[in-house]
Q: What sequence folds into this?
């Protein structure tokens, strides 16, 4: 998994995969990975989550603020914007990726505002392009610096997707938002 994620962030060899099922994202260190399909009860205390949304449907990659975020494959900017609410994404991009067999969208959340807003819908980029940099807590929804990477099988209508859902919505959410690591693995193996 680490070799695939290095196409997105330059993660060190000893990057730990955290168990975030026991509480909030605090004191996690600079470099870490947060799992997909993880019920993080107690971790989402902001009003945005309504007390019921606890199941994480993306993958989180922790790194220092300002760390570059790379496109693992070529694509097109679908949406770019700022989600300013406490606990939200802050700077966010949604990218579209097309290949034989289908289209997939990726949401890139918790970005520095400047990087997210430099893009316009329709802008194209190649594999290895720096899409943005990780935002500081004041611009990333109040979180320790990290990337939330989430896949979507249906075209998002805006620069927002529910990265955390209610556990009762798990089956539908996992169909709509497949594991981005598995998506990346399948994409790169078909290239």
A:
């Amino acid at each position: 998994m680490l070799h695939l994620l290095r196409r997105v962030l330059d993660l060190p060899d000893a990057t730990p995969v955290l168990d975030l099922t026991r509480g909030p994202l605090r004191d996690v260190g600079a470099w870490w990975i947060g799992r997909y399909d993880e019920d993080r009860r107690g971790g989402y205390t902001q009003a945005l989550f309504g007390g019921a949304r606890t199941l994480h449907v993306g993958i989180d990659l922790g790194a220092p603020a300002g760390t570059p975020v790379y496109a693992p494959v070529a694509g097109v900017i679908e949406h770019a914007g700022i989600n300013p609410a406490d606990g939200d994404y802050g700077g966010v991009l949604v990218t579209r990726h097309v290949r034989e067999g289908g289209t997939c969208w990726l949401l890139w959340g918790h970005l520095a505002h400047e990087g997210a807003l430099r893009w316009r819908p329709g802008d194209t980029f190649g594999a290895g392009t720096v899409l943005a940099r990780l935002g500081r807590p004041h611009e990333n929804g109040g979180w320790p610096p990290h990337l939330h990477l989430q896949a979507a099988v249906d075209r998002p209508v805006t620069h927002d997707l529910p990265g955390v859902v209610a556990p009762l919505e798990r089956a539908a959410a996992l169909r709509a938002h497949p594991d981005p690591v598995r998506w990346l693995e399948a994409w790169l193996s078909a290239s």
Notes: Residues 2-190 form a domain with the Glucose Permease (Domain IIA) fold (CATH 2.70.70.10).
